[in-house]
Specification:
Helix content: 55-70%
Order of helices and strands: HEEHHHHHHHHHHHHHHH
Low-confidence stretches: none
Mean pLDDT: 90
Strand content: under 5%
Distance between the termini: 27 Å
Largest sheet: 2 strands, antiparallel
Number of strands: 2
Length: 361
Amino acid sequence: MIYYALVLSLLVWPFGQLLSFDLSILPTTVYFMDFSMGVLTISLLCSSKARDQLVKDRLFWPLVVFLSAASLSLLININGLSGENILISVSYLLRLFVYPSAYFAVKHIAYNRIKLPLTISISLFCALGTMQYALMPDMRYLKLIGFDDHYYRLVGTFFDPNFTGAILGGVSLAAIGFYKWTPAVITLVMLALTFSRASYLSFSSGLILLLIKQKRIIYISLLALLAFVIFVIPKPFGEGVNLLRTFSIFSRIDSWYDGLALLIQKPVFGWGYNTLRSITGERYQIDNSFIYVAATTGVLGITSFIYLIYRSFKSIRVFPGFLFIISLVIHSLFNNGLFYIWIFFAYWVVLGLSSREYKQS
């Protein structure tokens, strides 16, 4: 059951926002991904062997401590929330609990059994993103349903070029680390089409780490290829394809400042995990996953979160997986990507794959 639930999650993942729907009993959007991950979590808990492996895992207690801090922060602040905001916050807290089950499931199942569905999942993600850019480059209508409007940018099924770029950059780095040049170049070209500067930076940082470790000139040529593709691809009017745009830079800085100001007001337990909507009555965006955790869960939460990330890196045994994870972490300094459920899922899947020994071939 664990295997089939994991495969289902892997095959649902590339469709992103396309498999979303609303329930009348919930004030927030629900994704089919949530249900598949719920099934996966229940499957793990129902297996005595999987439960034993889960408790013995080196990340189990760091994860428990962080989840406890996030839960406590919400519990302490729950009296100041409306019924609708309580439902929204609890639903996001539940996601925080169930999505790490991907990590434990991947480690529980032989790699050869998930290699094919994993390949299909990534291929579908890339294919759908390419189709969007080729057939629907004008995605400005997304603003009508609550997303940012984008024009001639690869936004993919996430409906966001920054989060899509984070995955593409991570996949390209992992492929380079495994010397799989064809998928590496394909995802590199797709990355260029996102016009996401945070994704360019996180990818370049990972590639520089690889260059320092292996000292191969070809990695410099890959950076040159990225720059060349960015230079030659179409750039119609609009700020989105203007790499010198400053509005998003100042917007991010403002969100960091606001997040730190919130932390100062409630430094110990924060404002409660995912309760910031209650402050303004609408989505409250902090473009940094670490500042987001600090503002919502306080010093206790951010300390346990940083320790969890640290233990995650300590558990990695496969360097291409390290490149993928470090690129996501760097990217999360400029977008709250680590808590975007599709990136959150990818983080745990790759971490599970990278925390076990298997032949790189």
